[in-house]
Design goal:
Blueprint: H1 4-7, H2 9-16, H3 28-32, H4 38-42, H5 54-72
Length: 95
């Protein structure tokens, strides 16, 4: 697995200076713990990400987002999504 902080340290410093942006390092064990994907993550030796395997890496990101939504609730929107109705019902926990 790649170390997130080492892959974009300059960006984390920039984002961390914004008053409404929080940069945190996640423990992947904690992300998947007590979710429906816990066993899948525990079996990671079977699907360990290789440098040429972007499919696994992209789906790993999807799995992590799904696990976080399962544990904490909320709404996930990618940057290329447009909302038709307001999302004002979200509080400060929106990501």
């Amino acid at each position: 697995m790649r170390d997130v902080e080492s892959s974009w340290p300059d960006h984390s410093k920039c984002f961390g200076q914004q008053p409404n942006v929080f940069v945190v390092t996640l423990s992947l064990e904690d992300v998947f713990e007590n979710t429906l994907l816990a066993q899948w993550y525990a079996d990671k030796d079977k699907w360990e990400i290789s440098p040429k395997d972007c499919f696994t890496e992209q789906n790993f990101g999807n799995a992590a987002r799904l696990a976080l939504l399962y544990k904490h609730g909320g709404l996930y929107l990618d940057l290329d999504m447009i909302t038709i109705n307001t999302v004002d019902v979200l509080d400060d926990r929106a990501v």
